[in-house]
Amino acid sequence: MAGATIKTVHDIFLSMEYGPSAPSSTSTAQAWLDNHSRSLGLFIDGKFVPPSDRQTRSLMDSKGGLVCSTVCAMQADILDCVTPAIKGFEAWSCLSCYQRSKVLLRLASFLGEHGQSFSELGELCQVSCSSSTVIRMLQYYSSWAQLRDTLIANWMPLGVVLVVGSDDCSLYYLLLKVLPALAMGNSVILVPGQSTAPPTLLLAQLFMGAGLPAGALSVLTGTDMSIAADVAQNTSIRYVTYCGNKQDGVNLCKATAGMGVPVSVSPNIGTTCPIIIFESADINSAVDGVLETAFKKNKDVHWVLFVQESVLESMMARLKVRMAGLKCVTLPTDEARVLVDTAVQEAQNKGATLLQASAVPSGTQYPPTVLYGVASSSPCVVTPSPGPLLPLMTFRSNTEAVTLGNHSPHGQAACVWTEDLTLALETSKSLSVGSVWVNSHALSDPCLPVSGHKDSGTCTDGGQEGLYQFLQPSSSCGLPRATPVALDYAKFGTDATPFIIPDETVGTVKSFAQFIAGKACKSESGTSVVVHSQGGSVLGYCPDGGQKDVRNAVEAAIKVQPGWMKKTTSARAQSIQSLAKGLEGKRQDIAKSISTQTGLPMEEAELEVELSIARLSHWAAYCDKVHGETLPVPQSGTGLSIPEALGVVGVVLPDKHALLSMVTLLGAALTSGNAIIMVPSQECPLPALAFIQVLLSSDLPAGLVNVITGRRDQLTKALANHSVIKAIWYWGNSEGCQYLQYTCTKPLKILHLFCQTDKDGNYGSRDWTHASVLEEMWRNAVQWKSVWIPTA
């Protein structure tokens, strides 16, 4: 035909164009919605419940047409939901591992039959998640349901778990929490976002057909995140886990503070992630991967492209050719278009060069755009706007690439492109992210564990490691459920230091020192607090530490922690073993301090010292025994699961078993490569103060272990408000637990909380001699990284 253009295979290869896609149909999903009159009710006790006189919420498709309406649950619906959930847990957890596995496999079979409905419904709701992906998840977690009692012995399900997703949360991430919770024997109350509500309601219906007990999976829909906090108020809820954007997660943490329920957050929407292209990369493959990642596949996160200077021209030339065929992206609103235009204009004003797929149309359409020449502090990098914008920066050395890649406060994922395997592994290990894809992009599989590094979450999802958030050791007590108190967060921990009036004890009692940066020292405040015996007599004075002492300790810790983490496991083991030897050499002095402080007979105090020596020796042996593994990924390639240190951990120590609990928590932190700041019990600080003598004679790097004495609430506040501290392990009162849950959100901190006293002042108990405490605390001291290396 005259004027026709015929492209050869060589032409298509050069431009890397994609062929036309087949027209999609949603007729099966439309039929399912019509069967429900396009008004979806709540899913309670194994069936759809369409409550009357309820507010509804309309869901629109990408063209503005009505998909369906969902019911907004109220307090009465929550009460109707929780009781069946408790009965569902009893029925579901009583089944054998094999029986639970069969139910999950049966659902996988059902999805094979009804996968078209599920996939079409996801596409219609703009939360596309293929049925094959969900089937893979069901197959994976059904095997863990089968093997739970064999491979995860002495751990038990939590009970009723609340899973919450924001309106912009992807269906995959939501199911990455629902399915493992069910596989471990819990019942689940699911509060999905607006877009994910229809597919999850369909999945709940299919679950009932597969044999899941009624009530084991319930779905509540609402107008906003407040419904999740209302559900969490019920004392039967044992755990709350959230995925979506960070702000909704922060709001949920604040709304549930003081309820006595653990809350974990996975803010996997809107984070900033690096793509690093080295000169040793296959540039053609890298360009194709960049376009797929930044503009087509993973739109939940913002990407920043870093290119080595030596291949910049080649990279830009290929980007220009291959971007020419990309279609414009539809922005969600007119306001989003204004934000994109503003970001582009600001970048241009600061010298950035634009590389766009096409001319910029009006309306909500915007072409894929590369912004070359931006600075790392540019607004389009620090606070990216919604839209197809890809900032591009250059680097010279490998070290500079890692520094730029770690510049973001987020730590969700990264892509590394290089044909040098050694460089790929070194870069992957150095990046502070939960997932690294080498020469690939946005690959996901349920066997890959992903932890939220830095400000990207407080839990691990996926893999065997992700199962433990839905389990508890048989010896664990957990937080007691409570009613939040009226707490003035601004005034918490600000009480004035009590006066110490000189009396006849002056010169007759000992003054103790705290331990910061490898030295025994006084507090920056220059004040002290009294150390009393159980009978009330004065045993001495210890420094009244505060914010400045915590700051000094953190500064010392962050200097030495990277070096400690990079030490060989055998070197760490030797250092911890030296602590055990040091403690053995001072066993009589420390046993006497325990007896004097607590009033225990010397025999019992000596036994606690003996157990503490054994515990440190156990941690030394633990150093090189528990590590990552190669994962059985279904695709062609190699998946690595790597445990990493959290960084700096703050610990407020328990009152009971002051020495044994201290060395248990200290060993867990040091074994996994962390630095630690410990606050001894305000009631019983003497054993920790005596242990400082052991630390002074040890070969641990100065600043790796710090001991700050003083008032618990004041030091808890100082730990919570320091941005570098990644995790806080807290033993204290309910007010302290509530303060930490409310405050530790900027940035997000991993919290391990234990309320020592209930509302009547009774002590909770913890068996520090039980072996399960070792694995539990070790798992609290690490974060996981998955590295995916394709081979074909």
Report on the structure:
With 792 residues, this protein is an alpha/beta fold. It has three domains: 243 residues, 3-Layer(aba) Sandwich (Aldehyde Dehydrogenase, Chain A, domain 1); 184 residues, Aldehyde Dehydrogenase, Chain A, domain 2; 270 residues, 3-Layer(aba) Sandwich (Aldehyde Dehydrogenase, Chain A, domain 1), CATH 3.40.605.10. 40% of the residues lie in helices and 21% in strands. It is built from 24 helices and 38 strands. The strands form eleven sheets. The protein has a ten-stranded mixed β-sheet with strand order 15-17-18-13-12-20-21-38-32-31, sandwiched between helices. A hairpin with a 2-residue loop joins strand 27 and strand 28. Helix 2 crosses helix 4 and helix 17 runs antiparallel to helix 19. The relative contact order is 0.09.
Task: Give the SSE layout.
Blueprint: H1 9-15, H2 27-35, E1 39-40, E2 42-44, E3 47-49, E4 56-60, E5 66-71, H3 75-94, H4 97-124, H5 131-151, E6 155-157, E7 160-165, H6 171-183, E8 187-191, H7 197-210, E9 217-219, H8 226-232, E10 237-245, H9 246-256, E11 263-269, E12 272-277, H10 283-297, E13 302-308, H11 312-323, E14 329-330, H12 334-349, E15 353-356, E16 365-366, E17 369-372, H13 379-382, E18 389-395, H14 398-405, E19 410-411, E20 413-417, H15 421-430, E21 435-438, E22 450-451, E23 453-454, E24 460-461, E25 471-473, E26 510-511, E27 514-516, E28 519-521, E29 528-532, E30 538-543, H16 547-566, H17 569-585, H18 587-598, H19 602-622, E31 629-631, E32 637-645, E33 648-652, H20 658-671, E34 675-679, H21 686-696, E35 705-707, H22 712-720, E36 727-732, H23 734-743, E37 750-755, H24 772-780, E38 782-790
Helix pairs in contact: 2-4, 4-5, 4-7, 5-6, 10-11, 16-22, 17-19, 18-19, 18-21, 19-20, 20-24, 22-23
